[in-house]
Amino acid sequence: MSASPQIGIEDETAPQRAARRDWIGLLALVLPCFLVSMDGHVLNLAAPRIVTDLRPSGSQLLWIMDGYVFMVAGSLLAMGAIGDRIGRRRLLLIGVTFFSGGSLVAAFAGTPAELIAGRVLMGLSGAALMPSTLALIRGMFADARQRTVALGVWSASFSLGGLLGPVVAGALLHRFWWGSVFLPALPVTLLLLAIGPMVLPESRDPAATRFDVLGAVQSLLALLAIVYAIKRVAEGRGLLTAAVAAMAGIGLGVICVRRQRRAATPMIDPELFRSSLVRFALLASTLTFFALNGTNLLLAQYLQWVIGLSPLQAGLWTLPSVVSYLVGTAVGPALVARFSRMQIMTGGLLTAVLGCTVFVAVILGSVSNLAVVVTGSVIFALGLAPVYTMSTDMIVANTRPERAGSASAVAETGVELGGALGIALLGSLGITVYRTVVGRSADGLPPGTAAGARQTLGDAIALAGDLPGGRGADLIAHARSAFEVAFAVVSGTASLVMLAALTTIIVLSVRGRRARADGATMLSR
Known about the structure:
By secondary structure, the chain is mostly helical. It is built from 17 helices and no strands.
């Protein structure tokens, strides 16, 4: 790494080490991450009561469940640029305040429209939190090793939120109404507003003079259209609408990129993508979350419908992977002293590929399938943690500190889109494989039963109870076997995607080193 300060390359010749106040500030930055992670889990538990009380339509339910994700994915780039201009700490405190406001609207919503409004407000403000926390970490921890540790703590907070979210939501739903699951945001917000101004420094880009409103709208609409198209594909309906939305999103994206290239102060620094390390890191994190979300979509169904666990039991058996992720967030920073971040990320990718490959063993149909999926989840989580931490570190570190907000938004946008693509593409692949395999055993059934059994494994199990004699048991056995094949195919595909990404990174990295070596040889002659 060059010792001279260059755009897109971090200067680590004399890094200033973080003080005690910075580490206390890190604990404050963990609060909004913990809050966002918890919110991602509580709504799923509250959904049945929401449907019973508010009676939303199908489209309203879609926006209740996914409106938050739509707004986060679509607003990240704009929020990163706003933070660079008005100050990351200011944007963080504004964002967490509006997040609590949206939570209050959602908690006391009396109609589906009010709940949707609350979720949209939470999504917009949630998009302000992630780039702000990452950009502040970039400024507070100039020392590379300390920053890696800080990012490990930052990453671990998401696992802790995911671990406690269902527990807290379950306890609240046991005693109170469904809206109570949104109220934990209030004490977290009050605590952050109280200590944030004292322990968090303010930082901004002094060269940013104005905010590109048109560019922000273009990026928002482009990403909203793309995420909407992905969701429609994942649902297996409205494919023409999805295609139109995707084409519109891509078109707007191209227009937005061209505008950013000509802008004097663009939302996204073009210099960021000139670094091969940034491109590699973005590719690795995007495709790893592509594999994670795609396999997790089928994993939850597999535990309940194939193995026969209750929702509580299935949730408990996911805890080993959460613990494994926490271990991985500690392992990555510990290895920085001996290995480069690129090497650690490569090892993490290989570990994640191994975890996905273990899932393929479910087609063996043995009684040890629970052990297989738990083992695969543990291995995958162990590899995911350093990939996420190191890729985020590489993206944020290899940009100018004053543009850290925009760089952080790019990193999180890659994660969001990768996860959405995984759900849509791998989920659709799983459905196709299941329908193809189970269709062979449903030909002799009544037309209505056969059509229902081809939809999902849950439908096949429900319909099997109406069949006479042993035909119901046979249908369940065939449907479960078909789902095992689908799960194995999706897991194998996810493994191949990550392996292809890893191969691409290694090949391009080797070519880059050779090109630099050849250039140095020519200059020395």
